[in-house]
Amino acid sequence: MTPLKCAAAGLAAVLGLAGASAAAAQAADPIFVAFHDACISTSAEPAAVTSFATSHDWKNSDVAGTPISGFAVDNKVSKSARVGDADLKLFAWHGTKGPIQASECQIAVSKADFAAARSAVATSLGFAAQQDTADKSVFQFAGPTSAPKAVDSSGFDQAAGSGGLNLLTVSKQGAGVFLELLRIQK
User: Fold this and answer.
1) 70-99: string of b/e by CB count within 10 Å (b at 16+)?
2) Sign of dihedral through CA atoms 14, 17, 20, 22?
3) d(Cα 156, Cα 49) in Å, to the nearest integer?
4) DSSP state of 39
5) What string of DSSP letters covers 102-155?
6) Half-sphere exposure of 114 (CA within 13 A, CB side)
7) Dihedrals φ, ψ of 100, to 5°?
8) 154 burial class (0-12, 13-18, 19+ CB within 10 angstroms)?
9) What's the pLDDT score for residue 63?
């Protein structure tokens, strides 16, 4: 089974499509499948992202991402892959700032449909974006990435202290999209 079909089968399980074929899961959005498996299912932890990417033939890359200012970065990874006719550039990092830990996983996609990516994220999480414009959507949720619970900004501190605060952003970038998961714990 190809890496994309393996990822699609994984997405089928996450979306509750147990027993569905990989082809049916691919209909969701192959770009989102790659983002889900590289970033969401790994909780944006660079070691897990690296393990996933290496086992799915992503290549080492010199992608230059920028961690949040003020964090002491203790692990980061850059990889690239191709899904269909789109180039994917991945950057993930983990760092600390006092008692706060942050992990972030970003994928820049050269060619993708923003509306399809946004829709795939909303379907997977089970709720709409809390911040939504014509070219950017932000999904805010608490807890582990395997059991997301929507949270508004008044619940950020509590979420970060009990299981993690997650900010998943989908942005339009020219003919492509930028997908990002930032996970904060304290």
Assistant:
1) ebeeeebbbbbbebeebebbbbbbbbeeee
2) negative
3) 25
4) I
5) EEEEEEEESS--HHHHHHHHHHHHTS--SEE-SSEEEEEEES-TTS-EE--GGG
6) 17
7) -95, 130
8) exposed
9) 78
Q: What is the pLDDT, as a whole number, of residue 66?
A: 85
pLDDT number for residue 28: 61
Q: Tell me the C-alpha distance between 163 and 138, whole Å.
A: 19
pTM: 0.84
Residue 75's domain comprises 3-185
Segments of the chain with pLDDT less than 70 = 1-28
Concatenated DSSP letters for 56-95?
TTPEE------PPTT-EEEEEEEEEEEETTEEEEEEEEEE
Number of domains in the chain: 1
H or E element that contains 158:
helix 156-161
pLDDT of amino acid 10: 37
Tokens representing 98 are 């006092």
pLDDT value of residue 70: 93
Query: How many residues are there in the chain?
Result: 186
Integer Cα distance of 152 and 120 in angstroms: 21
Predicted local confidence at residue 87, as pLDDT: 94
Place of tokens 């449909």: 113
